[in-house]
From TrEMBL:
Organism encoding this protein: Pontibacter arcticus
Sequence similarity: Belongs to the major facilitator superfamily. FHS transporter (TC 2.A.1.7) family.
Keyword Transport: no
Domain Major facilitator superfamily (MFS) profile: 20-426
Transmembrane segments: 21-45, 57-77, 89-106, 112-130, 150-172, 201-220, 251-269, 289-308, 320-347, 353-369, 376-394, 400-418
Descriptive protein name: Glucose/galactose MFS transporter
Length: 426
């Protein structure tokens, strides 16, 4: 491939490429299924474990901080195992994290839930570090955003199905339960909360089983290995004097951009159910807003697939998305009720094309530094760990709506990276 930062061993036929994309698509479906249920777990565990807003958003912290902690180790793992075996290992680790929900539910111990989420995030870190550069490298760079958009659709369909299903199970009659708890004595209250906590056991046992089956299928698949330690002549010459990943400012700015993007995406996705409740919607009904958000993201991905790069570059698409993020955030703060929640859901449209655009822009020209660069970008996902609890703190001390002001400067920096930051090469 011309101007590629990596090679496929052996070279792929069109059929092989399609088969590989289908396998990676299945992995992105799993990413979405596991990640987007946090919007359900936050209000669910807030009730079951008797938490305030800040404490409940530690769900997002525990899950996404694993990307920061395990970002660099994931590069070591992939260097030792290769991409295919690394994906298999990541799925197995995720299954272990899902199974930890069983003792967490039986003992109603919030710390165990958080540990299970951290372990799931650890497995996802390895999977993301392998699959994102893989889908970027498997075809021409200029159409990478299109391929990642297809993966995004798989991700969001998985997220929509899992959040709707789990929301139906975990938050069924939750508002009625909250009302009943107020009039119960300690013994009755404990029994009611224990029963609520145990609702999570069956679905997460199923999740663990699916992850293990998929791990076996990936292990037995014909997914080819990719080589990122070799560079073509053009990139090798450009990187002759490069001795450290820190010598790629467009990558380092990309890490910060990804940090902010993931922060606002997770914040909007994980808060929308709870925010809907503050706007007068019952919790078990507010779960539909997560589906609205994911649907708007799918629309954004479809637009990206059709328009990038034929009608608009991924750089211009990212600029437009950032501007939409600012507009929808301000409108959500300025309106109320269904309209306000709908604008939070529409942030899915603004966010949809951001990962597909940021990732290939940030790893462009890294050559032999691709693995470590990818791992640093994966560490940027820690934005999903830090910004949601900060939102929760603001919501506790201000209010849930005004706390969304935190999104505006984040989207403005994303616009800067799309317009200028990605061009800074030295």
């Amino acid at each position: 491939m011309a101007n590629s930062t990596a090679s496929i061993k052996p070279m792929l036929t069109k059929t092989d490429t399609t088969r590989s994309i289908l396998i990676i698509g299945a992995l992105f479906f799993i990413f979405g299924s596991v990640t987007w249920v946090n919007s359900i777990l936050i209000p669910y565990l807030k009730i079951a474990c008797e938490l305030n807003n800040f404490e409940s958003y530690l769900v997002a912290f525990a899950f996404f901080i694993s990307y920061f902690v395990m970002g660099i180790p994931s590069a070591w793992v992939l260097k030792a195992t290769g991409y295919k075996k690394g994906m298999t290992l990541g799925l197995v680790i995720m299954a272990v994290g899902a199974l930890l929900f069983i003792p967490a539910a039986l003992s109603r111990t919030y710390g165990l839930f958080l540990l299970g989420l951290f372990i799931q995030g650890t497995g996802l870190t390895i999977l993301q570090a392998a699959s994102n550069p893989y889908i970027t490298i498997i075809g021409p760079r200029e159409s990478a955003a299109k391929r990642i958009s297809i993966m995004g659709i798989c991700n969001k369909v998985g997220g929509a199905l899992s959040s709707f299903t789990l929301g139906t199970i975990l938050l069924l009659n939750s508002d009625v339960i909250v009302d009943r708890l107020r009039s119960m004595d300690l013994v009755q209250k404990t029994a009611e909360l224990n029963a609520l906590a145990e609702r999570v056991i069956m679905p997460y046992t199923f999740v663990a089983a699916v992850l293990l089956i998929l791990a076996l299928l990936v292990h037995l698949s014909s997914l080819p290995e990719i080589e990122t330690d070799q560079e073509d002549e053009t990139i090798a010459v450009a990187n002759t004097k490069k001795t450290s990943i820190l010598q790629f400012p467009h990558l380092m700015l990309g890490v910060l951009t990804l940090f902010l993007y993931v922060g606002v995406e997770v914040m909007s996705g994980d808060t929308i159910v709870s925010y809907g409740a503050t706007q007068g919607f019952a919790l078990d009904k507010a779960t539909i807003f997560t589906t609205y958000m994911l649907a708007s993201m799918v629309v954004g991905y479809l637009i990206g697939i059709v328009t990038i790069p034929k009608y608009i570059s991924q750089e211009k698409a990212l600029q437009v998305s950032a501007i939409l993020g600012v507009i929808f955030s301000v409108l959500a703060i300025s309106t109320s009720g269904f309209t306000s929640v709908l604008f939070i859901a529409l942030l899915g449209l603004a966010n949809s094309i951001m990962w597909p655009a940021i990732f290939p822009m940030a790893i462009a020209g890294l050559g032999r530094f691709t693995k470590i660069g990818s791992s640093l970008l994966i560490m940027g996902i820690a934005g999903g760990a830090l910004l949601p609890p900060l939102y929760g703190l603001l919501a506790d001390n201000w209010n849930a709506q005004q706390a969304y002001w935190i999104m505006v400067p984040c989207y403005l920096f994303i616009w800067f990276y799309a317009a200028k930051g990605h061009k800074i090469k030295s």
